[in-house]
Amino acid sequence: MAIFQKDLVVENNHPLNLVEAEEIDEVSVTRPPIFEVYMRMAEELAKRSTCARLKVGTVITDRHLENVLAIGYNGNARSFPNECDGPTPGACGCIHSEQNALVKAPGSVRDKVAFVTASPCVTCAKLLIQGNISHFFYRELYRDPSGLEVLDRGGVTTVHYVRWMQDWR
Fold this sequence. Notes:
Elements: H1 15-22, H2 26-30, H3 34-46, E1 57-61, E2 68-73, H4 97-102, E3 112-118, H5 122-130, E4 133-140, H6 146-153, E5 157-160
Helix pairs in contact: 5-6
């Protein structure tokens, strides 16, 4: 059975939640699903961000959720000061976490899955499409939701993933 079955509709309108629901037993009640593990990794990476306004983390995996392909968090370029270039939201000069992860991810791998602590801006959404991301999980809604519309137009499945957010803390 494929991990992603587009014909199934469940909570969050995403089939991965059904896979989780079907696998609940004594063991899975005490351990978080792999989707939550990757999202928690993204949350931990966000703590490394040097952006003054919004700290964001990204984890990119293969489509089977077996291998982490790349990680990223937002901040200034390598060897630059660990601070924003300016105070203007959207123009602070920080490289976005998705961009940092995408430059490290292998381009030849198709159907990658991204776990990000915030939904993307329009530019990052376009880069995610170009980077062969097939599924995009996010925790928080970015101030401008247009990036989600771009992902949708580009055929990327988006999931507002908050199902297990309060558990296992």
